[in-house]
Amino acid sequence: MGWMRDETGLEKNDANYVPLTPLSFLTRAATIWPDHPAVVYGTHRKTYAEYIQRVTRLASGLSKLGVQPGDVVATILPNIPAQAEAHFGVPACGAVLNAINTRLDVDTIAYILDHGEAKVVLCDPQFLPVLAEAIEQMATAPPQIIEVADDHAGVHAHGHYIEYEALLASGDDTFQWIMPRDEWESLSLNYTSGTTGRPKGVVYHHRGAYLNAMGQVISWRMVLHPVYLTIVPLFHCNGWCHTWMMPALGGTVVCCRDITAPAIFDAIADEGVTHFGGAPIVLNMLVNAPDAQRPVDHLVEVFTAGAPPAPATLAKIEPMGFNVTQVYGLTEVYGPATECTWDARWDDLQGADRAAIKARQGVAMPFIEEVRVTDENLNDIAKDSEAKGEIMFRGNGVMKGYLKNPTATAEAFAGGYFHSGDIAVMHSDNYVQIADRAKDIIISGGENISSVEVEACLMNHEAVLLCAVVAKPDDKWGEVPCAFIELKDNHIATEAEMIVFTKDRLAGFKTPKKVIFQELPKTSTGKIQKFELREYAKEL
């Protein structure tokens, strides 16, 4: 082996080392499958040859507007073709994509545009009034606005700004893409849904997005030409990197602007959708849809994340034709980073036993080197399904850091791991299962109560559509569980009934001491906004 110590002449060169970037997936797909459907949305049906031409024209058009490599280009768009095109076209001109949550308030959008210093923003007409107000609040130079009409959805251009199709028409389809010279170059900027304080700007690099996309192909057991439905907003961890992933397989992206049960069932029936990702709230919506929905005649693979899905929901949705795999991650790890990989030893499990396994967050995806659950001293906790610690990540699918926030970046990476802030147990088979967000643990009389456990119990009640459990201040116990419940249509229930229901299934100290029936506040990705409920519970 000693001869390997002399590596003279074995250096990197142009032939053997090319920076990894998801942009290469699209150039390859356009070469191999030029006539295969790439993006579908109503009457908008583009092949890979047409897709790459539109992306190239977008990159060229942005360059002509003065966008330089390293500049930020923002989008405020639903899941429409222009948002998918921006995922390739913005980096193809060397710029950094900042896909902004369409449901944010004026003040937060103004902060993001200032902080990220966006030069251009592509905006759906529906969100132009909010954007206009945000620009008035900005402290720095405002971005140039490009209006992206959605005539298919009846959202027409106002005519006050350059329209997206006109921008593409101004572009040159022979424009040479500006590929990264270094795979560590920034690809996208995603702002966390800051529930306390200002959102932080999470920066992704080309290498991480490439490896995440490739790794999920393995995790999702994908073969050529999947048909992917955009349920996850493309502003949420760049749609979990799925739009970058599809060209690697010659897949078809089916855009979905409004996430409703009929839209999902229709896309499965009409477009042959084979895969989608979504929060448990989406699964719940499908389970509770009217019986008249169109049947699912082929297996649809689903990645679910955002909160642990209730075993009751999992048990109901699988017989409908959906195979659900729970994944888990955060904005800081490009979306999904662990998966509940199914093992043949569980094949015979049914009902609640099967669902209990599927409710785990699982093991590291292929692009994550390590997932640990540790105590405050970074020591691994016992793998006994009971000891609790914080989930830690290390690998190529971890962000570069927080933009202009070296202190927060250093804290997040202390000890050489990314600190998730999520509290979990580790099972003996190395599968991780979240007990709670650190801030969602309820400490009552010195006992730790997992809000997730109480919620899973309540979701088994036939009248419950959605629920959230938070801490309510209590003079005697310090905190007690308080449940907020959204009931199914045409169902009724009482506070006393719910308390008895949980008391029959959980330890007495874990049962909610207060139950409130109301519609639950949710983020655009379907996550229940517990911080709002905590504030409300404080006032009770």
From TrEMBL:
Belongs to the ATP-dependent AMP-binding enzyme family. Its cofactor is Mg(2+). Residues 453-527 form the AMP-binding enzyme C-terminal domain. GO terms for biological process: fatty acid metabolic process. Coiled coil: none annotated. GO terms for molecular function: ligase activity; metal ion binding. It catalyses: 3-(methylsulfanyl)propanoate + ATP + CoA = 3-(methylsulfanyl)propanoyl-CoA + AMP + diphosphate. Residues 27-403 form the AMP-dependent synthetase/ligase domain. Keywords: Fatty acid metabolism, Ligase, Lipid metabolism, Magnesium, Metal-binding. Its EC number is 6.2.1.44. It holds the Pfam family AMP-binding_C. Signal peptide: none annotated. Homodimer. This is 3-methylmercaptopropionyl-CoA ligase.
